[in-house]
Amino acid sequence: MFSYTLTFKDDVDRLTAPEQEVSLQSPAQAGDFLILSDGSRHQVMFVTHRANYSSLYLDKGVRVPQS
After folding, report:
1. Domain boundary assignment for the chain
2. Using an 8 Å Cβ cutoff, are 45 and 61 in contact?
């Protein structure tokens, strides 16, 4: 598992995000899309790595219509 903290382009997305961390089965790359638990879809703009954690920088979220 690959764990990432989430950083958002817009403060409103950061404040309303249902999660601040995610765990993925495979490493994330720029251009990937994440769907958070509230149904919002975000594109990964870039990934940063530090000694003890990695972060995903996400663009503005888009709500996915529920059918």
Report:
1. 2-62
2. no
Whether the CB-CB separation of 23 and 37 falls below 8 Å is answered with: no
Q: Are 12 and 32 in contact (CB under 8 A)?
A: no
* Residue among 56, 65, 66, 64 at smallest CA distance from 14: 56
Whole-angstrom Cα distance, residue 67 to residue 58? 25
Q: What is the pLDDT of residues 16-43, one digit of tens each?
A: 888 889 999 999 999 999 998 888 899 9
- The percent helix, strand, coil of the chain (3-state, each to 5) is 10, 45, 45
